[in-house]
Amino acid sequence: MFYRLREPWAFRGWKKLPYALRDEYGEQRNEKPFFFNKEVFLALLSCNGQEDLDVQSLSENCRKAFEELTAAGFLEASIDAMAPLEPWQRYKVYPSRYLRSAHWSITGKCNFRCRHCLVSAPEAKHPQLPLEDCLKIVDEIASCGIQMVDITGGEPLVRNDFEEIVKAIDEHGMEIGTLFTNASLLNEEVLDILQRHHQKPVFQLSFDGLGHHDWLRGVEGAEKQADAAFRLLQEKGWRANAAMCIHRKNQDSLRSTIKYLSSLGVGSLRVNAPQSLGIWKKNSTQYALANEETWEVYRDCITHYFEDQMPISLDLDGFFHCGKGKTDYSIPYMSAAKKQLDYSRIRYCESMRYHVYIGADGRLAPCMGFSSTKISDKFENVLEHPLGELTLRGNCHDVVETRVSDFLARNPECAGCEHLSACLGGCMVADITDEGDYLVPDRQCCYFHKHVGEHAVRETADAAIAQYCGSGKE
After folding, report:
1. What are phi and psi of 111, to 5 degrees?
2. What is the pLDDT of residues 21-30, one digit of tens each?
3. Per-residue pLDDT at 248
4. What is the pTM of this model?
5. Residue 147's closest CA among 174, 176, 121, 126?
6. From CA 250, how far away is CA 211, in angstroms rounded?
7. Which residues contact residue 122 at a Cβ distance below 8 angstroms, ignoring those fewer than 6 apart?
8. Beta strand spans in 254-298 (E)
């Protein structure tokens, strides 16, 4: 019997994870590949349409894999030889660890003066690399088999060579997943550029409260520009999400903001407190909400959200998540709970394992949260070292490989905490210091587990659901 791997699947591999099938352009393109052990994978490599294979002579594990993959449509079978695999389907091993996406600041410049900027863009602390270097970075990202690139800044649309970067991403067969922008330069020309190069990203626009956006962004008219951008995206059929930084001045605008964004077809709103880094560090004393105040705002918001019939998908930091029109909510702060208690095997941040951040200067960091700390200067630059190598060694790699046990060694008081198995130290960069010390407890996560807890969120949400939506969950 002849077997052939169906398109859009291809044989792929990475250092430490060398045996996989990945969707190259189909519906599961942005999903995690299917990984196999060596024995099964080597048998699957015979599924090239040209080799006559006796599956019954294979091991039980191999036979089971062939049966399941054929039933699921990954493999096609025939008594006659079939066309050989397409060149792009043939086995290829990338010189990096497996990465799902790269988050890239294509510039450190910005045309706004945001009071909370994580990368201190208004103070021009980060550069804008020339186009030649940006194209090298695109090459490096592609060389690691990364399919998804999220674009941010600074403000990415300030680059007059923005189209050249988009074109290069497209030529490598990669996809822009999310484009983060302050919306001031978003117009039909930008949409045309993206369409011309086969890109249809989700736009994430900053919007910091109806009637309050100008203040945080430091530019008069910023809210009107954001409104125009949301309306343009709605008119042209592009997906848009929003992010809001909650603080003392805009805390009472959350309900009206959700209703407003929903009316403009915005898919989701992510609300969070700004990190006390960059420019916000000097503003936080006066304007940052205390943890107990943040919970009061979120508690009222949860009630109003269900009263208003869940008009938008909503994330409230780690306290609450719910999809538009649904009552089946979740509590992200509880999702980290592990049955396995060997903290030497649990990574401090699992997300960093599959994603990387490339700064405006080309430095590779585990995530953007390291940008305004002194440790960022210690991270290697992808313009000086191959990206694949840096995912396997170096300072960034060492941070990614940090385990919960490393955190506990620095914070022995957390080792005996009853909430440790759910908290796991919280977000690595939530309270990172100016010096770049990331082995510090996440104070908001700690506050949630010790003073709010899952029961308080569920009590608030379930009461609102029962009152405004009926008692059942969808």
Report:
1. -95, 5
2. 999 999 999 8
3. 93
4. 0.93
5. 174
6. 8
7. 110, 112, 113, 114, 218, 279
8. 268-272
